[in-house]
Amino acid sequence: MTQADSYDILAGHYDAAYANKQFLADIPFYVDLAKRAGGRVLEIACGTGRVLLPIARAGIAIEGVDNSAAMLAVLRASLEREPREVRDRVTVHEGDMRRFRLGKKYPLAIIPFRPMQHMFTVRDQVDALATAAAHLEDHGKLAFDVFYPKFEMIPAGIGQEVLDLEWAVDTAGHKIVRRYFRKDSVDKIQQTFTGTFIFRTYEDSKLVLEETDPLKLCYYTYPHLQALFLLVGLEVVEEYGSFARAPLDNAATEMIFVLTKSRSG
User: Fold this and answer.
1) Distance (Å, whole) CA 143 – CA 154
2) Where would a tag sit more exposed on the chain, N or C end, judged by fewer CB atoms within 10 A?
3) DSSP assignment, residue 169?
4) Is the dihedral of CA 243, 247, 248, 252 positive or negative?
5) Closest CA to 132 of 55, 52, 229, 56
6) What values do phi and psi take at 231, rounded to 5?
7) DSSP 3-state assignment of 143?
């Protein structure tokens, strides 16, 4: 059993882990936004292309930016398996979502599947949103999502290891990966928690590989996000509590926003 660099681990397992139906609910939402945008789309923190590729397959030109070379390597390998017309719609850049500038404007920028929750300070949060706003056309839109925090659950289960995902590596099912999660700490003041993903690979029920990947996420309240929007000069045009466009209320599971540059800003 070995341990590898955490980005390599995350990149290597990402597509298989998030191919589960529960993680595909956001794709139709973002593809629909892209279709309605009427031009090239910018995806910030595109990772391995889980959302980027469906948008390109829908006939829409899209540029992706990510700071992980390992994740982008997986994306580029996936692109090689796509038809030429899909490959031709995609441009990929390596860059930090807090600082990159492409010198272009887009009718739509998206930050899907919670990259904003990897921005741990107000300065980083403002900088990331400012980066997105800087790439919007005058009437362009920014869409992103974060989870709706369940405050009773955040401090629960510290130190406990829980099986959260499992998938087969081969079609015969002789080799499977089980992903466990252990929450390690909670910082209520900074609104963050840390944990560890543990990937265990089994061949014919025998453990042959164990890998670990650290996780740190921040969480937001609704007023916190509203304050960030004011600081950056963004205003909400749509908000939802699910990717089925349910209201953002006490039953929400997500906080999903579509924003544009503020008229007053």
Assistant:
1) 25
2) N
3) S
4) negative
5) 229
6) -65, -35
7) strand
Angle (CA) 246-248-252 rounded to 5° is 75
**Token reading at 32:** 């629909």
Domain edges within the chain: 6-149+220-261, 161-218
Tokens of 40: 């090239």
Contact 239, 251 (CB under 8 A): no
Q: Is the pLDDT of residue 23 over 80?
A: no
Q: What are the pLDDT digits (tens) for 143-194?
A: 999 999 999 999 999 999 999 999 999 877 789 999 999 999 999 999 999 9
- DSSP class of residue 212? E
Contact 63/91 with Cβ under 8 angstroms? Answer: yes
Instruction: Round to whole Å and give the CA distance between 86 and 55.
Output: 9
Query: Which amino acid is located at 246 in the chain?
Result: A
State the pLDDT confidence band at 21, using cuts at 50, 70 and 90: low
